[in-house]
Amino acid sequence: MTVAMQEGIFNMESAVSFALVQEQHLDLLSTIAHKNIGAFPTPAPAAQEKVAIGITSYNRPELLLKTVHTIIKQTYPRELMHLIVADDASTNPLMNSTLAEIRQLLDDSGISYDIQVPPAHTYVAATRNRILNLAQQRNADFVCFMDDDDLAEEFMVSVYMRVAMATGADIVTDFSDNYDVTDDGRVRFSHRSVAVGNAFAHNFFLNNYGKANFCVRPGKALAIGGHHSGAQSNSPYVDWGFLTRASLHNLKIELVPMALYKYTKNSQGSIWSGRTSPRDRYDGHGKMLRDMEKFVPYKFWDVLRYCRYQLAMPKVAGDGLV
Q1: pLDDT tens across 136-158, in order?
Q2: Largest pairwise CA distance in the chain
Q3: What's the pLDDT band for 201 if we cut at 50, 70, 90?
Q4: What is the pTM of this model?
Q5: Do 261 and 145 form a contact (C-beta atoms < 8 A)?
């Protein structure tokens, strides 16, 4: 090990060129992404699960209201859905009236719900953990996470549950259609964001497990510690960290090769608009490394950390500084 650290490790020559592997991989993802999913059948599954949809929000009442409307329009049976709206102690004065409007909408819809407002702002990882605990108390079979800048396709929950029941998955995730907001406030399609699923060797370097929207069995999620908590829980890569933890603990992750929701990129107030410093990225990678180190002998920790900080994307210096 000492020699390897001092002199380096020679690369082995691959039997297939990297350029060919990259070309074929991108062709596969492009083919999946461009399939016409408009007529995708979503018949009601024979055995149906109780689903809690957890929406996290902070200081964005208008976006939150739009997201809730997309849940009310779901094709999944309303009696099997429970909506948890988690406002992370917003300071926007319009949030109280928006939450009141949401209560009225949900009362009229017949969908059961909880609205959570903690006494202090705690960031999305802690908010999602509170959602997990509440969903388990409500006897939900799955929790489907969304943020307030996501708009669900009307078949989102139906497809998630159809795949979960067909595969026995612990986690189901998907693709997303991503949108930009122009300087004059218009929303414009950007691209379809695809993924590769539970491929740990790939996802070590670049997060392609799936998207931040995913459904998970709450008991399984809590058994592995939920989302990262503690001093660095407010760092980015919340979904990457959780899905890495799930993969390390052998939870069954299924990827739906469909865009089940629309995501507004870099919307004001999102984690990508505020948690972008080198220190934030360093902490985001670090919380995942601490999980990985539990499965790796101590003598390999330096190599593990070098590979993650120097080769993973987005790249940061090993000390978190530039």
Answers
A1: 999 999 999 999 999 999 999 99
A2: 69
A3: very high
A4: 0.83
A5: no
